[in-house]
Amino acid sequence: MDRLIEKRVNKELTNFKYILNKKDKSNGKFTLEFDFSNNNKQYNIKLSLDNYPFNPPSNLFINNKRILYSSFSFPNSLINNYILKYKKYPSQITILCEYNWNHTLTILDIVNEYFNFINDLKNIKYELEVNKIMLKIKLPDEIIVELLSFLF
What we know:
With 152 residues, the protein is α+β, with helices and mostly antiparallel strands.
């Protein structure tokens, strides 16, 4: 199994410098660490790999902050609005959920999913702020529609 994990990580992260450490020789758990760039920002990614690729990685850390798709990692109001918009809890739809995982998914799929989720939350926050402003400012509907066409 160790060799399978090493080969798989090497194949997935050929363009990245990474560190793959065996955490515990008795149970075969690995930790993976690599740097990732997104929108000209650098991120340090850490994951635990236990029976990878047949089980999803666990303990996702980005810049030393543990990521959970819940209000433990993100503001409760954004998570609640996410649920209202998408009709599902983020923790239910993430590929890190063992029910959504399949062995064809990759570590980069997990990282990209995280950044897509962050963009969804930013858009939700933006929509909430725009709605607050629109409620405070009494404008004709035609002007509001025109303004929104530039924003969305």
